[in-house]
Specification:
By secondary structure, the protein is α+β, with helices and mostly antiparallel strands. It has one domain: Ribosomal protein S6/Translation elongation factor EF1B (Alpha-Beta Plaits, 2-Layer Sandwich). It contains three helices and seven strands. Strands 3, 4, 5, 6 and 7 form a five-stranded antiparallel β-sheet that branches. A hairpin with a 2-residue loop joins strand 1 and strand 2. The protein is globular.
């Protein structure tokens, strides 16, 4: 729980946040002219798979309150390859026990934006801040380890 100052008192409170994640889809060429997926379909499929994980796999310290998949898929040009890449946005509203628990969303490659809905103000002492920074460091190392394993499999 995060500490919230109310007047002269410091109380504990959960954090409510809205997080935007954009799931990437890249086209997969098919055999001859048929059978491949376009980038929009690939992004939609990626979004559906990741949202299913969010709904079905519990995360310690995080309670999923709402998942909004109504945003349209958008396509941009990849800077490195020059190929079109589609992104399927999702807005996830969560209740977290602490800021550290939100860290796993923030270091994620799909992360785009976070909006803290509640509480209006938070109080962090030196130890809380050190714990938060350490947790973010761990999440980044975990993310890079997963990324490295993916690259080594290719």
């Amino acid at each position: 729980m995060v500490k919230v100052r109310v007047g002269d008192e410091i109380l504990s409170s959960a954090i409510k946040a809205r997080i935007r994640l954009d799931f990437k889809g890249e086209g997969k060429p098919g055999k001859f002219l048929f059978g491949g997926k376009n980038v929009e379909e690939a992004a939609e499929e990626s979004r559906e798979q990741k949202v299913a994980l969010l709904r079905n796999v519990p995360v310690q310290g995080i309670q999923i309150e709402d998942i909004d998949m109504s945003a349209e898929v958008y396509v941009v040009q990849d800077e490195l390859s020059g190929n079109p890449v589609a992104y399927a946005p999702v807005q996830v509203t969560v209740s977290a026990d602490s800021v550290e628990d939100l860290g796993r969303f923030i270091v994620n490659g799909e992360f785009r934006k976070i909006e803290i809905l509640e509480p209006e103000q938070m109080y962090y002492n030196r130890l809380d801040l050190e714990r938060f920074l350490f947790k973010i460091s761990q999440e980044i190392k975990l993310y890079y380890g997963q990324l490295e394993r993916k690259l080594n499999q290719r």
